[in-house]
Amino acid sequence: MTIRHFLTTQDWSRAEIDALLEQAAAFKRSPAGAQLAGKSVALLFFNPSMRTRTSFELGAFQLGGHAVVLSPGKDAWPIEFEPGMVMDGEPEEHIAEVARVLSRYADLICVRAFPKFQDWSVDRQDKVIKAFAQYATVPVINMETITHPCQELAHALALREHLGDLAKKKYVLTWTYHPKPLNTAVANSALLIATKMGMDVTLLCPTPDYVLDERYMEFGRLNAEQNGGSLKVSHDIEEAYSGADVVYAKSWGALPYFGRWEQEKPIREAHRHFIVDEAKMALTNHGLFSHCLPLRRNVKATDAVMDAPYCIAIDEAENRLHVQKAVMATLAGRR
Amino acid sequence: MTIRHFLTTQDWSRAEIDALLEQAAAFKRSPAGAQLAGKSVALLFFNPSMRTRTSFELGAFQLGGHAVVLSPGKDAWPIEFEPGMVMDGEPEEHIAEVARVLSRYADLICVRAFPKFQDWSVDRQDKVIKAFAQYATVPVINMETITHPCQELAHALALREHLGDLAKKKYVLTWTYHPKPLNTAVANSALLIATKMGMDVTLLCPTPDYVLDERYMEFGRLNAEQNGGSLKVSHDIEEAYSGADVVYAKSWGALPYFGRWEQEKPIREAHRHFIVDEAKMALTNHGLFSHCLPLRRNVKATDAVMDAPYCIAIDEAENRLHVQKAVMATLAGRR
Amino acid sequence: MTIRHFLTTQDWSRAEIDALLEQAAAFKRSPAGAQLAGKSVALLFFNPSMRTRTSFELGAFQLGGHAVVLSPGKDAWPIEFEPGMVMDGEPEEHIAEVARVLSRYADLICVRAFPKFQDWSVDRQDKVIKAFAQYATVPVINMETITHPCQELAHALALREHLGDLAKKKYVLTWTYHPKPLNTAVANSALLIATKMGMDVTLLCPTPDYVLDERYMEFGRLNAEQNGGSLKVSHDIEEAYSGADVVYAKSWGALPYFGRWEQEKPIREAHRHFIVDEAKMALTNHGLFSHCLPLRRNVKATDAVMDAPYCIAIDEAENRLHVQKAVMATLAGRR
């Protein structure tokens, strides 16, 4: 039997995504389960985490399983991902061994591996999680690399809870300022899931340099076509917010400036006014606001927006627990 | 229903404290329970821990629950605690989100946050745990901030095991030397619980500069009055030890020198003779000795004292497990 | 009743080792158990770990128990191991308290403590784990110090799975190059277990300087004598590999150069050709290859060897889980 991984929602059909969301909603109503009884999950963090780690660890527990948390290079050995290397540098072992050995111990392997922010042509290959998927003999789950599919599910579930059917809703993914150039993962993921749900999606960003990688733009257009929605890019704040049903905010570094962040910095600084505030939200169709968290208050969104009843970021964060239980139960159940 | 936290024993009546101690004694006789079955506990450590982490984690397990351990700023994101900030510094997220999200995942939130040792007027506000209590929608438990209420319960239980009723016993809290200026938390806590138990308490310290914060001195006097004991300060080692039933040692930095530790250092160095040794213990009424641990042997107490039958520090440490199970079971049972 | 520890296989008879291996094989066939139901295990890591931590933590879970993971000096307090010290340096507490307190919380204490690589006459005393065994009131398990007995059991189980009875098989322990001087623990352990299984053991190394500590050479000769095998040293690659049934590779620093590693470096560098490759393996009797992992590919063994069907390193790594469950179940069952 082929191993089914959860690396990107793009590998899962709309029907399969809907099934995961239904399972998640069921876990939200009734948290306890035995789908992972006696089973174990390895959580590998190459980058820090609060929500992801807590929700995966407790999700495994609530289903009768146990998660072991590993931080390679910190409390575990640094790992080599390239094949054929003469390993006389830092890494003490190769992904071939790491993935195979963990597959003997654990029933699921979950990986967080952010880009290195030096060369997008390298980072966009998503080598770390692909190497895990290549060598592992158990399912691999993406805990955020250059996409963040678990966040997508949590986001979609929160939107459905508040809006019901999402088809043809106006969805704005807005870039916001952040003092550092951040990962495009959640932005890529927002495009994928919003278009998959058939929404009319506007990507709002300061300049064409902030448009996302063409791979995800193309997936977005394809999803829109297949699910009756649309995807467009806008640099006009007022136009984008007008009549929006959903505003989703995220900061990210402009891809053409990848690795040359000092040159991008003044451009970013010049667009601090992209902050989500009450005036902008007033332009929407009583729109919901959300964000994947962590969020810098009064930089990405104002206190007033974060504390407003239309802010569903905490609901979305809670849903991480439920959707990840659905993903784990589904993948472990196939074995 | 109001959320009941466990931030300081001062918020809990003598009868409530007695009930917690009885529950703890019951857990000591019979460790297994189902009070946390399917429930989870988030343990947040802003500072290192051995006993606290182990005893909370295993305590949750023994009651059927699961504890997730987080170190913000190390393996989780750094957190902002001030309201209304434009968050363009280090912290990636605000306590408002952290506490609310964790409340969705976990049934209890436990926090260790030591003072920063720069400005006592800031540290004495105990902002970190108060912010958690403000924003969390589940009970918050103090794992040591500027008081250490779980240590208090463990200490009181150990004393009762050896002395029975504690009323009118002579209790000496003695300052000891340590190469670094330490937190006053356990000293504050010792005052609170010893007076709450109606003991005759002597705070023994080198000079008036080492008297504890007036807030805790005042709580101590109040407790003494209500529970039939007394509280006095002494700088005379012989007088203090004479006839003592209990000697509890702790080192702490002098509050008037807070943040100017180089100036305090020679004063501390001049009082190395406050070390607890056999000669001093010989002055007591066959007194017990204890300490919260970690303890530097032959600096705070001699090997002979630590290895003597009257040293109950290991019993006190064990009791951390039992009392914390009582606190968790009590708070989780109210939800 | 005396406490039984698992510090080295040399303290356990051949019959006892065989019983552990049988129990491990039974766990491999049927992983779930209740031998640690309600019990807990403290895992103390003074050095990093991936396999060891994962396999111990999941092994405890599979037997109904819970493992708490501690890293003294990192997320727990630094520890003093010498008796009688005036503790005014770095360590905040003494092993006497650490071991006694952990013994009150946990049913088993497992310790990883590598040598410090400055003075072999100090490191060979194995003070850290011996201090734990001295002060603990529960069984202590060695997770690698200057021997690695759990690896021995995993190795022996993997060899038996592939070869059946091991008596009189030709076993080659070969030194290999590594850019850093490594611990001799696994090499010492390979000698102990291979001789205990009655194999004809050849220690292959570049020069007499790389022969292992006389303590382990002597144990090896003793074991060989008692179990019908043999032990010899060789510096001739071709002779050693010829007709071998098992090739086990490991790198280690030469003991006479301990703490003077810059002087050893050119010697090590001159023996990079000790790498395990297909040409060398072709000299064997269809021999198996294994290694304890982590392994630097194309430095210690080539990709071709690592990916060959005769490489059983992944099986050996998997067996860590099963043998450690056997050790934990056996020791906890005696209490």
Structure, explained:
The structure is a homotrimer of 335-residue chains. Chain A has 335 residues and is α/β, with parallel strands linked by helices. Chain A has 2 domains: 9-147 and 320-333, 3-Layer(aba) Sandwich (Rossmann fold); 151-316, Rossmann fold. Chain A has helices spanning 14-29, 51-62, 95-105, 120-123, 127-135, 149-163, 185-196, 214-227, 237-241, 261-269, 278-281, 303-306, 313-333, and strands at 40-45, 66-70, 79-80, 93-94, 108-112, 140-142, 170-175, 200-204, 230-234, 246-250, 288-291. In chain A, the strands form 3 sheets. A 5-stranded parallel β-sheet of chain A has the order 9-8-7-10-11. A 4-stranded parallel β-sheet of chain A has the order 2-1-5-6, with helices on both faces. In chain A, strands 3-4 form a two-stranded parallel sheet. In chain A, helix 3 packs across helix 5. The longest helix of chain A is centred in the C-terminal third of the chain and has 21 residues, at 313-333. Chain A is globular. Chain A starts with 13 loop residues before the first helix and ends with a helix. The mean pLDDT of chain A is 96. The A-B interface holds A 31-32, 45, 48-51, 53-55, 57-58, 61-62, 71, 179, 293-299, 303, 306-307, 313-314, 317-318, 321 and B 38, 40, 42, 66, 68, 70, 72, 74-77, 80, 83-88, 91-94, 96-98, 100-102, 104-106.
In short:
3 copies of one chain form a homotrimer. Chain A is an alpha/beta fold and 335 residues long. Chain A has helices at 14-29, 51-62, 95-105, 120-123, 127-135, 149-163, 185-196, 214-227, 237-241, 261-269, 278-281, 303-306, 313-333, and strands spanning 40-45, 66-70, 79-80, 93-94, 108-112, 140-142, 170-175, 200-204, 230-234, 246-250, 288-291.
